[in-house]
Specification:
Layout (H helix, E strand, L loop, with lengths): L1 H24 L4 H26 L7 H10 L1 H14 L2
């Protein structure tokens, strides 16, 4: 039961951060949106890594995770976290 509570907690935190970042990035021009998406993905990776100390579900910061978070942004970070939780990688 404790694992389910951790998943729900992490999910709520990720959704809250995504919502906050989307609200902050609203109304930007397309060129700036690309950079904003990359930065939001990198900050989401940092956030998940820091919160992972509490929940024990962390994403290691390495060239692969940095690349995925920079190219795919926040959805890429969420996808990596979901894959890690489901397959216990």
């Amino acid at each position: 039961m404790l694992a389910a509570a951790k998943v729900i907690l992490v999910g709520c935190m990720v959704i809250s951060v995504i919502w906050l970042l989307v609200r902050l990035a609203g109304g930007l021009k397309p060129g700036k949106t690309l950079w904003t998406g990359m930065l939001m993905g990198l900050f989401a990776l940092l956030f998940v890594s820091l919160i992972g100390v509490i929940t024990s579900d962390t994403l290691q910061i390495n060239p692969f995770t940095l690349g995925v978070s920079a190219v795919l942004g926040v959805p890429g970070v969420v996808l990596m976290l979901i894959v890690k939780i489901i397959w216990k990688l």
